[in-house]
């Protein structure tokens, strides 16, 4: 398990990995393996939690190339109980397909907690700033504050594309 001082940056890492700051989400990050990063909306009912576990375990079982893998499970939500229940169910499900979850974190807007050890603390502006500075240094665009903001930023002016498509159709008909 990483030292306590290094746990919080996992919660800020998602902005550079996903391109936005996840809210009301469960995110998995591979720990030294070839597994992909994944994100789902945080389940709010037992049925949704069961479906999320099934979805994650099926996807990761298909992508597991080594006999064992390891993931960090991070629940970004204001509801710590939902985070604990979701991360526990997900860790048990992933274990059945050969994937360990040594890190289970809950993060709200201003707090975080290691759900395995109970270690917790305040979210740090310094960690956020460091991650943003590293991304800028690497030439990455700043992350969007939310998934909807990222979606809106990806929609550009459609008129030039529509004009090119019209021209291509005319050329195709000739």
Shape: extended
Instruction: List low-pLDDT spans.
Output: 1-12
Q: Any idea what the radius of gyration is?
A: 19 Å
Distance between the termini: 65 Å
Number of helices: 6
Name the helix and strand elements from N-terminus to C-terminus, one letter apiece: HEEHEHEEEHHH
Structural class of the secondary structure composition? alpha+beta
* Main sheet strand line-up: 2-1-3-4-5-6
Count of beta strands: 6
Describe what this molecule looks like in 3D.
The relative contact order is 0.17. Strand 1 (25-30) and strand 2 form a beta hairpin. Helix 2 packs parallel to helix 3 (80-96). The protein is 47% helix and 20% strand. The protein is built from six helices and six strands; from the N terminus they run αββαβαβββααα. By secondary structure, it is α+β, with helices and mostly antiparallel strands. The model is unreliable at 1-12 (pLDDT under 50). The chain has helices at residues 9-18, 46-63, 80-96, 125-137, 147-154, 159-173, and strands at 25-30, 38-41, 69-76, 99-107, 111-114, 120-122. It starts with 8 loop residues before the first helix and ends with a helix. A six-stranded mixed sheet has the order 2-1-3-4-5-6, with helices on both faces.
């Amino acid at each position: 398990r990483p030292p306590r001082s290094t746990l919080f940056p996992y919660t800020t890492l998602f902005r550079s990995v996903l391109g936005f700051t996840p809210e009301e989400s469960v995110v998995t990050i591979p720990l030294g393996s070839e597994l992909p990063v994944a994100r789902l909306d945080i389940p709010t009912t037992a049925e949704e939690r069961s479906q999320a576990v099934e979805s994650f375990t099926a996807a990761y079982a298909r992508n597991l190339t080594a006999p064992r893998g390891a993931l960090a499970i991070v629940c970004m939500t204001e509801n710590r109980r939902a985070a604990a229940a979701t991360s526990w169910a997900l860790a048990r499900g992933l274990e059945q397909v050969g994937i360990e979850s040594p890190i289970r974190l809950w993060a709200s807007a201003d707090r975080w907690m290691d759900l395995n050890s109970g270690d917790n603390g305040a979210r740090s502006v310094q960690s956020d700033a460091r991650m943003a500075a590293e991304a800028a240094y690497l030439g990455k665009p700043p992350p969007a504050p939310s998934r909807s903001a990222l979606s809106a930023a990806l929609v550009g002016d459609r008129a030039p594309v529509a004009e090119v498509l019209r021209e291509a159709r005319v050329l195709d008909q000739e």
